[in-house]
Write a structure and sequence with these properties.
Layout (H helix, E strand, L loop, with lengths): L2 H18 L2 E6 L5 E5 L11 E7 L8 E5 L1 E2 L5 E5 L8 E9 L5 E2 L1 E6 L15 E8 L5 E8 L2 E10 L2 E9 L8 E6 L6 E9 L2 E7 L1 H5 L3 E8 L8 E4 L17 E5 L2 E9 L5 E7 L1
């Protein structure tokens, strides 16, 4: 067989595997629950038990696996529900279909209905915020990105004027006090901290941060935290989680300011990390 024929055969084999792989449509609800509608996973008899398996990447304990029974639905597919009351630890969870006694098979993504996640505003009455967003991986498989924050500081609008960064947001799971402040913490040197005053109206908060001193400390990221009760209370990571975008790092981009620092020319500006946490990045130009 020629190399061209071999390549074509491999391509067709890949297409066949993709076509045969079970698919799942996902519907998210505003409380944090997910419903999965799965096509026939193959190899299942009428009496066989079929599960949807969620496995957290780099799983090393029983808590890193969640099994949900798949039951026949009206349209001939199999349905599983992940209620918001079932905790899903923070991380990325790969989705599989598994027939009793068989090997788990990765699920392919179908249609994700995430409309209820847009502009979501949970009550925060449970003391935590649970977020689950199904998405397609780079390999074309179905995974679920999960966050579980208690409490949670949701970043909203960011305003930039020169090196001045103003962050608006909303706090869930605890209350803001008169002692509240925000802080930027240098990731490589946690003892290096710059504080910012917070103004609050109920659960809504605003703080302004001068990024200039951060830039003058040299290249490296700074993580943003909220201290709603001052030094005596919790440190709450500022993040943007309450929408339908699982990875914001390349989606939400902001202007940078270039300036001379004691370490040479640098640029400074806000960004979202791989975990959708808000940070300020300083890097050489």
């Amino acid at each position: 067989m020629t190399s061209s024929a071999t390549s074509q055969a491999a391509s067709h084999a890949g297409d066949d595997r993709t076509a045969a792989a079970p698919r799942a449509d996902c519907v998210a609800d505003s409380a944090g629950g997910l419903t999965f509608d799965v096509t026939d996973p193959g190899g299942a008899g009428a009496r066989d038990t079929v599960h949807l398996l969620l496995r957290r990447r780099e799983a090393d304990s029983a808590e890193d696996y969640v099994r949900l029974p798949l039951s026949p639905s009206a349209d001939g597919r199999l349905r599983a529900a992940l209620p918001s009351s079932v905790e899903l630890a923070e991380g990325r969870w790969n989705a599989y279909a598994q027939v009793a006694g068989g090997e788990p098979r990765r699920l392919m993504p179908g249609v994700n209905d995430l409309r209820s996640l847009v502009d979501r505003a949970p009550s925060g009455s449970r003391g935590h915020v649970a977020v689950r967003i199904p998405y397609a991986t780079k390999q074309g498989n179905l995974s679920v990105r999960s966050w579980l924050r208690a409490p949670h500081a949701e970043a909203g609008e960011l305003e930039l004027a020169g090196t001045a960064l103003t962050v608006h947001g909303r706090l869930y799971g605890t209350a803001l006090t008169d002692a509240a402040y925000a802080e930027a913490v240098r990731r490589a040197e946690p003892g290096l901290v710059h504080r910012a005053e917070v103004t609050a109206e109920g659960p809504e908060f605003t703080f302004g941060l001068d990024q200039g001193p951060l830039a003058d400390s040299g290249p490296g990221p700074w993580d943003l935290w909220l201290r709603p009760a001052g030094e005596s209370g919790p440190r709450v990571r500022v993040a943007r989680l309450l929408d339908d975008i699982p990875d914001k790092k390349t989606i939400f981009t902001y202007p940078v300011v270039r300036r001379e620092s004691p370490h040479g020319a640098v640029e400074v500006g806000p960004y979202y990390t791989n975990d959708n946490d808000l940070a300020v990045r300083v890097r050489e130009t």
